[in-house]
């Protein structure tokens, strides 16, 4: 039994989704001031609203990570017509929310989320692939298991691959998958960074600065997949050089220019945004308010 | 028994709150691009997150409007430190959500919400006053019943005033109270306007245009109370003259200038924003998507 109210946990996750997409300027991504042609800021708000019941259900689910991720994708899509909004975020949020539901207090999240990840089954892997094709995400298929292909489902079953195993396979080139296998290291680092910055900078700029830090430290998977490793590296270098120039007030103009450039080139660091959502969730779960 | 999922109804209300505060430019009010000194856009997002469980509870509550409004104020405040965000909106949303919970389909809202309003009790009136002082709203007290004053609670009880009676007393000078006594006329008119505009204009501009229309047709109570009747009238006239100039693309510059002027003078049409939230709720409940 959890001692923390399920609706409280789900609300922490929902607020994380809302504040991530609102934070601006967040170079290359949708924010309150930037939309893509078919996907808009408002679609992300609606997605965060629609997924709440699934998040709440996840807090008292002992298993079924894959099915819950698929359900999250479906519910998110029932409330908006902007296409895929939060698929990557759900891959992190669902196990985190399930872990929070197992916690007796606010300190055991790190231990529990690793257990949730390791306890996944072959059925979770199959459901995850179904979620994948429902979300129609343009990412690299895990090894030679092509997505949405029934043969792949058979292959998963034949080889007895769990969802954790799939994440191990992808972990070398996918920063979201790597979170599953390295104990959600970037997520907890991100949470610490946001909590360190919120008092001085307020919630928006704490998120923007942490986003820039993540971008400068890690090559974004979404950029690597959509473009290549070199492009992701360039984006990291540029972020680092901007951050080195000083305080947020001094560099905000440069972050804006960087944002405009990435948007123009269609470079969206979507995986970094997913880590931000996960980090915000951890922060709210740990009691952060603003 | 309702045939509509409680979480669906609560989600409609939550999405209404998120999209109202996001819509920009919404002259004089907080939106995604404008904050006040102590209250920010993000506080409104957090308030919409925090109130969800109360909204869900309201869908299956047969009575207790006043207590639910108070609970909504308290929960909203537990998630953010920006002060009063949605008090006026809750006065409309709570009876609407309760009415939706009684509906067998999506067409009976208008009839049911009038019943919910008329069935309120003296206890609801007392709870409403408690909510009022919890929200610390700077509005005109109902007649000589001064707020937060225990003598007033006794007076309500002595005179046997229900919450509906209080709304009747305030209805002549308060557009939110008037909704209770005129069958939520502006709310349903607002819903029709948004639904008429969404296809051509998209969700943001449908809200902005409807906001301008409401402002031009009705003097905002919040402005009347904070300033005077003349100021509210001026704002209405200015809105009307801008709207008469043409299509949204042609007048957006003027709406922006109007917004900047109102923000500078501290004129915030808060009651009009509350009607927008109620109208958005009705629209989503009736099946609108974007």
Textual characterization of the structure:
The structure is a homodimer of 290-residue chains. The first copy, chain A, has 290 residues and is mostly helical. Chain A has one domain (6-285): Triphosphoribosyl-dephospho-CoA protein (Orthogonal Bundle). In chain A, 70% of the residues lie in helices and 0% in strands. Chain A has helices at 6-22, 41-50, 52-59, 65-78, 87-102, 109-118, 122-135, 150-159, 163-170, 175-181, 185-217, 221-226, 229-243, 248-265, 270-285. In chain A, α11 (185-217) packs across α15 (270-285). Chain A is globular and about 55 Å long. The two termini of chain A are 29 Å apart. The model of chain A has no long low-confidence stretch (mean pLDDT 93). At the A-B interface, α1, α2 and α11 of A face α1, α2 and α11 of B.
């Amino acid at each position: 039994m959890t001692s923390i109210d399920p609706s409280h946990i789900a609300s922490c996750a929902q607020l994380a989704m809302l504040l991530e997409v609102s934070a601006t300027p967040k170079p290359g991504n949708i924010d309150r001031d930037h939309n893509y042609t078919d996907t808009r800021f408002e679609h992300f708000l609606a997605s965060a609203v629609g997924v709440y019941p699934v998040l709440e259900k996840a807090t008292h689910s002992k298993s079924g990570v894959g099915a819950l991720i698929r359900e999250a994708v479906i519910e998110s899509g029932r409330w908006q017509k902007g296409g895929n909004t939060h698929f990557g975020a759900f891959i992190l949020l669902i196990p985190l929310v399930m872990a929070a539901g197992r916690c007796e207090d606010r300190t055991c999240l790190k231990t529990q989320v690793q257990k949730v990840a390791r306890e996944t089954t072959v059925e979770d892997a199959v459901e995850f692939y179904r979620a994948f094709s429902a979300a129609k995400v343009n990412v690299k298929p895990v090894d030679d298991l092509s997505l949405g292909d029934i043969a792949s489902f058979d292959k998963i079953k034949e080889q007895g691959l769990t969802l954790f195993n799939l994440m191990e396979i992808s972990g070398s080139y996918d920063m979201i998958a790597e979170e599953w296998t390295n104990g959600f290291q970037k997520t907890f680092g991100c949470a610490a960074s946001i909590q360190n910055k919120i008092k001085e900078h307020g919630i928006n700029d704490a998120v923007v600065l942490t986003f820039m830090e993540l971008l400068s430290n890690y090559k974004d998977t979404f950029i690597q997949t959509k473009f290549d490793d070199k492009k992701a590296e360039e984006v990291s270098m540029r972020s680092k050089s901007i951050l080195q120039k000083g305080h947020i007030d001094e560099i905000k103009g440069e972050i804006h220019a960087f944002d405009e450039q990435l948007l123009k080139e269609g470079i969206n660091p979507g995986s970094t945004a997913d880590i931000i959502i996960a980090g915000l969730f951890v922060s709210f779960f740990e009691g952060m308010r603003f």
